[in-house]
Amino acid sequence: MKIKRNIFSAFFCILLFSGCGFWGGRDKAEDRGEQLKEAEQAAGHFSAQDSEADEMAGIAEIPVEETAFVRKQQTGRFHYDRLNEEEQITYAEILIILRDFRERTALSGTENDMIEKVFQSVLNDHPEIFYVDGYTFTRYTLGEKVKKITFSGTYNIEQKELPAREEQIARYVEECLSGMESGMDEYEKVKYIYEYIINGTEYDAAVADNQNICSVFIHHKSVCQGYAKATQYLMEKAGIEAALVMGRVSGGEGHAWNLVRLDGNYYYVDTTWGDASYQITEGSSGQNLGSIPPINYDYLCVTTAQMEKTHTIEPIVDIPECNSMEDNYYVREGLYFTQVDEEKLKEVFAASYEQGSSYVTLKCADPLVYEEMILHLIEKQEIFSYLNAQEGTVSYAENEEQLSLSFWL
Predict the structure, then answer these.
(1) pLDDT tops 70 at residue 142
(2) Closest to 318 (Cα-Cα) out of 80, 116, 111
(3) Are 37 and 43 in contact (CB under 8 A)?
(4) How far apart are CA 35 and CA 80, in angstroms?
(5) Cα angle vertex 238, ends 210, 319, to 5°?
(6) 3-class secondary structure, 219
(7) Do 106 and 96 meet the contact criterion of CB atoms below 8 Å apart?
(8) How is the chain split into domains, by residue range?
(9) What percent of the chain has pLDDT over 90?
(10) How far apart (Å, rounded) are the C-alpha atoms in residues 206 and 226?
(11) Contact 17, 145 (CB under 8 A)
(12) Structure confidence by residue, pLDDT tens digits, 320-340
């Protein structure tokens, strides 16, 4: 069917990652003629033709059966399960396109408003898709009616390079999981992975691939999104349900962390904030790695209320409330105090010396207990009754925001 040149148009949109989050490119409408030719030169995704059939020639289609099969495979994925049916169909189609490095492939739907949400949901559920930087889509219209939308991934490597990268990742994962003791419960697995990543990764905003798992698994340096995706990837390999969460932290900086499910309860985990190298990089210039504990456990299996003291959650799907303390690090390790308990304090410090620990961190249930603990341990100097100190000095750190106290042994 012939159509008039002035009523057929295409919309072209680009989305690329930047920092811990991403930014949306222009959604640009062009009429046919000179404007369309300019868009064609800039994007290279479509060309001006005289007929609708010619305009959409060569566009790949995804069989309905393939989409249905992939949809069944996605059941149980955190973000996928929280999308409506139309979004889930688009999710499956985008996943197929990204997995196969496809370009200019048609989506079954003709609404572009949900593409960004669904694309982000796919990547949030699939940390193994580390080779995608963003996407482009083109919307073809006849008058006011959208006839078709095509989608392409933007890839940071060629498909032929993928097996070599995956082999490097597999070696890291095998080494990590081989050190996990048999019989560990879910909390112990999460703690192990948290510590493993922190001990083997340095916070570095300049490292390559810092928005994906390659930064941690191959370069051993990363930023928040790399930490969070690597944490998610390892937890899933260990049989732990984990999701990527995006948001902001104090000061408005974009940030990424994880939501995990242990024994039916949800908790937040922020591996980046657990790493002393991040604390030094983002903290005061007077700090050094010896002045704070090498691992900060304040963000290992915490509640929504605790997380929201420093993090602003910006979910793209509904996030469940985290209100259990059962598998919180301090509770599980016997370091959580609802009152000043001298006998418990003796046991904690004695156990830490026996285990060869270099420091002890205590967490208080509320501000009143925190103040009482400072009064008892510091102002009354009762800390020396728990330390094997040769001199009358002790190094310690206060964290009023987290209601925690750290003492060097």
Answers:
(1) yes
(2) 80
(3) no
(4) 38
(5) 70
(6) helix
(7) no
(8) 8-156, 159-330, 334-409
(9) 67
(10) 12
(11) no
(12) 999 999 999 999 999 999 999
- Summarize the confidence of residues 262-276 as an average pLDDT: 95
For 316, how many CA atoms within 13 A lie in the half-sphere containing its CB? 25
User: How does DSSP classify residue 375?
Assistant: I
Ramachandran sector of residue 166 (left: φ over 0; alpha: ψ -120 to 50; beta: rest): alpha
- Matching residue, tokens 């456990």: 297
Task: Name beta bridge partners: 397.
Answer: 406
Encode pLDDT of 337-394 as tens digits: 999 999 999 999 999 999 998 889 999 999 999 999 999 999 999 999 998 876 677 8
Q: Fold for 159-330, please state it.
A: C8orf32 fold (3.10.620)
CA end-to-end span of the chain: 82
- For the segment 98-102, the average pLDDT, to the nearest whole number, is 96
Spell out the alpha helix ranges (H) of 216-338. 224-237, 271-274, 276-282, 304-307, 329-332
Q: What is the pLDDT of residues 164-222, one digit of tens each?
A: 999 999 999 999 999 999 999 999 999 999 999 999 999 998 988 889 999 999 999 99
Residue 72 CA to residue 53 CA, distance in Å, equals 33
The pair of structure tokens assigned to 288 is 């050094």
Per-residue tokens: 88: 């889930």
